[in-house]
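Notes, p. 3: input format for complexes.
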Amino acid sequence: MATGILEQIGAQSAIADIAQKVVDGIRLTREDAIRLYNHDDLLAVGMLGEFARKRAAGPEKERYVYYIHNMHLNPTNFCVETCRFCSYANPGNNAYSWTVDQVLDAARGGVELGINEIHMVGGLNPICDLNYYEEVLAAIKKEFPHIHLKAMTAVEIEYLSNLEGITYAETLERLHKAGLDSMPGGGAEIFDEGVRAKMDVKKTPAHTWLEIHGIAHGMGLNTTATMLTGIGEVVENKVDHMLLLREQQDKSKGFMCFIPLKCYYEGTNIKDEVREPSHDDLLRDIAISRLVLDNFPHIKAYWIQLGEDLAQVALSFGADDLDGTILEEKITHAAGAKTPLQLAKERMEELIGKAGYTPVERDTVYNIKRVVDAPETNEKSLQDKVNSLLAASR
Ligand code: V47
Ligand code: SF4
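Output follows (394 residues plus iron/sulfur cluster):
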């Protein structure tokens, strides 16, 4: 396999030395990652991402691509913050905050469809304080003990701790006791302070976001990590974001997955100030995160934001997870995403199978629930998909 990739990249390639490092298992530097972003041959970068994915998976699981049957729950869209890229929070008369019973009703709808994870996040709302979230988590756990509760971003942990005047560890311990099983990776945005200032992001600076995840890992809670692009960042900001995550993972080891996110602009006023990520950019984020984050087991192609075709192509660039069936997504759809709100399990499996991989239904912490016999593929080849997607985004 190793010789193959070096031949494919070619000894004359400007990234031949980086390919050799990848094959030798040598950690990539900041400069390597920046060169990969600037290298003109996108497919060569993708091939390296695919090589690293296969090697991380091991020979028995090298074709596995994971998904989860889950739902998103957003108990409130009122938020004391005003991040400029966010269309979800504070929609005037449509602001809401659910009672514990309303959250339970929504959860019941998902459980009846057979989900096994609830991914719950919301705005920063003084009405929804720590007691409220303790009640919500405990009520869901009591009625549906088999459901994994992946909830509360580091941003919400910071807010609730400040509201209560207690430490992050105390907040996390109380929520863990009430039923919190793991934490999602939202709220990281881009760690760079300059970009954050332009986007009016006042919450949770990098060191606090990382500290909270480190505390959660220390308590045995697994978490994930995101990076939001299309908000005025440059390549160097993305690489530095990944390097901070890699450093934290070396220390606390609890990140399961990295999810590159793409900003949608409807309902915001930032479109004219930023560069919208192209398909090329989004595929590089997948491949380069796979290569730089050598201590992250999984890289997610978030189909809600990428769309089905690009998410499929991302599987050949180093991603090994399509996220979940979701049922109802509000944050990206409030900003104009047109992907369906929900995919059936069968459709997830079809997307993975037709991209040439083996669909695997997982739980939140990547225990395998079911390995699916991949259906025969007669869709247009992946190479054709890459070509037409790239042509469309130029
Ligand atoms: O933190 C906000 C982003 C995130 C917009 O942990 C926007 O497995 C696009 O974190 N357009 C929430 N994105 C979503 C998230 C997530 C998604 C899937 C899986 C996981 C996981 C986490 O959405 C926010 C923010 O970075 N966001 N506004 C927007 N207009
Ligand atoms: Fe509030 Fe999060 Fe939206 Fe920022 S991104 S306004 S913190 S809900």
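The radius of gyration is 20 Å.
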